[in-house]
User: Fold this.
Amino acid sequence: MITRLPPLLLVGGGKMGAAMLAGWRERGITRVVVLDPGAGAQALAGDGVDIVASLADVPADFAPQAIVLAVKPQIAAIAVPPLARFAGSALFVSIMAGKTIDWLAAHLGGNAAIVRAMPNTPAAIRQGITVACAGPAVAPTQRDLAETLLAAVGAIEFVTAEKLLDPVTAVSGGGPAYVFLLVELLEAAAIDQGIPPQLATQLARQTIIGAAGLLAASPESAADLRRAVTSPNGTTERALAILMAPDSWPHAINTAIDAATARSRALGQEG
Ligand SMILES: NC(=O)C1=CN([C@@H]2O[C@H](COP(=O)(O)OP(=O)(O)OC[C@H]3O[C@@H](n4cnc5c(N)ncnc54)[C@H](O)[C@@H]3O)[C@@H](O)[C@H]2O)C=CC1
Ligand SMILES: O=C(O)[C@@H]1CCC=N1
Assistant:
């Protein structure tokens, strides 16, 4: 167990970068340099955290033990190669969707130590889940460091088959968006039934919050919790008969996850 985090370079201080930085601050940092040209990143400055707009502004004597890549995959081909000078000394942890360990190694130099990971936005409240895969050049102590950095924002699982990162990206990486969409759709349906908008919003939000809390607190499976709501010949049964029809949610969710998985694979090939 690492007690205090070593010097870190965070490349990209947007939604995910900021969420991880907040988790690291709770964990105890020595020094973090955030490389981000965006004006919004300035808000991340504070005790032990410096913001720089370009790599040229990173102090020459700063020696990060880990570099976390939290920029969009679409700019990776521009943002990643200049970091190759750290490849001999630092671990790289990439959370970019789709970008493979091979792609990163090709842009950083063949021997770079690389962990590819996929977190999700509940990281912002330390309730995320991350799946990670360590490349061949990662030393055991570097794997431990990656685990510590990622565990600061929620649960963490390592896999050895990197190809699983594409469906993981589709399921848990994007998963919060599907849940938020459900809130939006429930709210719209409530309004359609004549429920006043303010109450409709409250019903939709608190239903998801309450159901998630019940899932977290209960030892029962999701299917058992669903059955507990569903009275024989009652109201929920009528709704579920529509939602659970093979060409309804089962088909839509499966097709959606398939499309997102394919997009993750394609992002790995671009640039
Ligand atoms: N948003 C999400 O739900 C998740 C996103 N990811 C991945 O995390 C990465 C970041 O995503 P978000 O935080 O959502 O994006 P974001 O747009 O909030 O943050 C990206 C940050 O990169 C900065 N940036 C742009 N060009 C840069 C450069 N050349 N050097 C350094 N920084 C630069 C931007 O100013 C911005 O602050 C992406 O690769 C995405 O695939 C992973 C899991 C979940
Ligand atoms: O939509 C995306 O590409 C990223 C990866 C997972 C969540 N957001």
